[in-house]
Amino acid sequence: MNNNIRYIITPTIAIAWFVAIVVSIVVNHPISTLQYEGSIAIGEVTYNSIWPVLLNSFIIIFISILLNHLSQHNEMAKTDNLLPILFFTLFQSLTPALIYHHLYTHLTTLLLLVIIALLYTCYQQHRSATQKMFVIGLLLSAATLFSAHIIYFLPLLIIGMIQMQVASARTIAATIVGIVTPYWILWGMGWVDIAQWDFSMLAITPHIPTFSCHIIPCIGVMLIGLLAGVSNLMNVFNENNKTRAKNGFINITSTYTALLLIIDNNNYLQYLPLLNSCVALQLCYFFTSRQGRAYNIMFYTLVLTLIAYTAWIYLFQL
Length: 318
Known about the structure:
Blueprint: H1 2-28, E1 32-36, E2 45-49, H2 52-73, H3 83-93, H4 96-100, H5 103-121, H6 126-146, H7 154-163, H8 169-188, H9 216-236, H10 241-263, H11 272-288, H12 293-317
Antiparallel strand pairs: 1-2
Helix pairs in contact: 1-2, 1-3, 1-12, 2-3, 2-5, 2-11, 3-11, 3-12, 5-6, 6-8, 7-10, 9-10, 9-11, 10-11
């Protein structure tokens, strides 16, 4: 019964909490501004609409379901649970701007998670890896059409190929061809003009952020991810090579995304959903691989703290 409360009932309550937040936003702010971050080929677009919040919310829930699928089928959970859904929706709720404006950020996050899922299927599968890496390159390129800064995840993709033991000249070449293909097609069809490409969108413009309630969630998620990641590294040594590789890559992705968020902090919201996704998976492995009263207390304390902070933001800061 305790496991049912921890793994099933509590996440269900968290989803209901997230839906209540979305309803509150829609009622109080029926029209939101949708910002298209843009790519080097298409540029930026800003327009107003009444539907982004709802569509954004559906994508967030879909991402949380994908995270749950990743955890259940890739050795990142010791038992059936809904913990990735729980933590991802709670982390997303901590930053209202992610629900209110950043539809395309969540689309890029969804594509990046699909890339991770495909990369996992490549583990030691040398025969099929080349075709899959081409598809992965296509997806990464598609993500850059929504946000140019996603191209900075290319080194992480190469690390993932090494982690899954499929790195070779063929797979790297297939990935590069996949990345180039969408832009080549757009240029060939006359939809974009190379002379008008704006490579300045790739510039990283770090600054010293002003400390506010909006920065606290980023710091908190990074610290949680660091602590869970270090603890998982010590625990995962008892697992098989495949489990170590997959869990290790989530730790690497979490760290890499956190570093990008810090370095390119002017665009931190573009990286935050992926960081939230990785930390949710890290916490899933952390809590399902450990039992005992102390971990139960830690679990419920973390959940209640996240809910309380979210309530404070929406009641007093918006």
